[in-house]
Amino acid sequence: SSGTDENFAGTGQKRQRNDAGNKATVVLGAQWGDEGKGKVVDLLATEADVVCRCQGGNNAGHTVVVDGKEYDFHLLPSGIINPKSISLIGNGVVIHLPGLFEEGDKNDKKGLKGWEKRLIVSDRAHIGRVCSVELLSCFSTVFDFHQVVDGLQETERQAQEGKNIGTTKKGIGPAYSSKASRTGLRVCDLLGDFKDFSTRFKNLVHQYQSMYPSLTVDVEDQLKKLKDYAERLRPMVRDGVYYMYEALHGPPKKILVEGANAALLDIDFGTYPFVTSSNCTVGGACTGLGIPPLNIGDVFGVAKAYTTRVGIGAFPTEQLNAVGELLQTRGHEVGVTTGRKRRCGWLDLVIVRYAHMINGFTAIALTKLDILDVLDEIKVGVAYKLNGKRIPHFPANMDVLQKVEVEYETFPGWKTDTSAARKWNDLPAKAQNYIRFIENHIGVPIKWVGVGKSRECMIQMF
Ligand code: GDP
Ligand code: IMO
Ligand code: MG
Predict the structure, then answer these.
(1) Contact (CB, 8 A) for 43 and 69
(2) What does the record give as the active site (predicted)?
């Protein structure tokens, strides 16, 4: 609130402090994705006024189960389920327009009415992947421009280095590359002078065709479709920065930011190059929406009670054995976006602590505890060793990470069904012990424990 600040930087001057405004609550993945962010956002969204996506694209797949109905969201914020809240897609997101409308229409059929009236899209968001399914419909109705490039790049990686990244092939890397190389096209360009937009669109197509000569594009057909999308999108588009400023500085409002992907997939802090192309850590909430750091409130980290990873890359606690198979089948660990089986292993507290170093979590949501119900014993990775010596940091170099030896702590399994537990005291003592250990080791309070897919299956601790 307003007030006079004490001594400013030792100058003896007093300065006036502005009204700090409302704070945004941020929900972030603390592992390699699919921790259950959608479910945590859904829980908080019942009270939120604005729910925002700040980064990523439809590489994300967030599942929410309400009244026995399962919704999958890729580009729409999971809060779109709440008819009383506004959903915002921020400038940091790369939007696949046909994908967005397809997703909305699909959910509309499931009963999600009026979503277009509750959605706001930032005019600064990139539509690099607007070159969509239709773009290449002249010869294919399955792939799109950036998706094709994504696929071609994967083939190149495989040929040159003998390994690819295992991307979702949604064109995320190529879209963010266009943004960084300053040839990308944004929502405001699409809604501006269409002649200018068309020229830039053609230039972008040429740029890609010079890199990938096999790429065929029916430009005129595409521009016609884009014009139609522009009109459907127009009523939803706002200046995202000003919208957010008003939300932060107007009357009290609950603002929720839904992270996509996760800390270990972050372009700067993740297991590079086996990462996605955006900042999935807390800074992404600021840059992807135009929120000042001062207006960031709670930062909730979501972590599964074990670890999963989709795609390629180091995974120190991976269990290529019966335990991994059990976690995969019991946990239904299949990618929402790609349908690929997720790789599974023990909870790795080294990575969760690393995610906490970057994000400064104020609390943790620990999900899928129920999946561990049948295990005789449960292990938790607590430290990495190199040449027999513990290392205090998380290695940047993937060759080093491949070589670490994980030090485990072993816990007896509780061998009890926890899926009906609704409060702390309903949990078996051995499960409570497991949770308390995790909390102490990360040094962050656990606020929720997930014991099932639906909304009610979330034990709130405080
Ligand atoms: P997100 O990408 O982080 O939103 O997570 P996903 O939706 O991709 O994957 C999480 C999966 O776990 C979804 O199928 C959820 O319905 C499910 N889920 C979330 N929390 C729990 C839980 O506590 N127990 C069980 N059994 N399933 C859960
Ligand atoms: P949510 O939001 C799990 C992974 C891909 C691949 C790498 C790069 O559901 O947690 P990309 O298509 O982004 O270029 O792929 O990142 N990946 C995810 N894995 N959950 C996600 O999102 C992911 N988003 C990207 O599998 O390894
Ligand atoms: Mg997911």
Answers:
(1) no
(2) 34, 62, 179
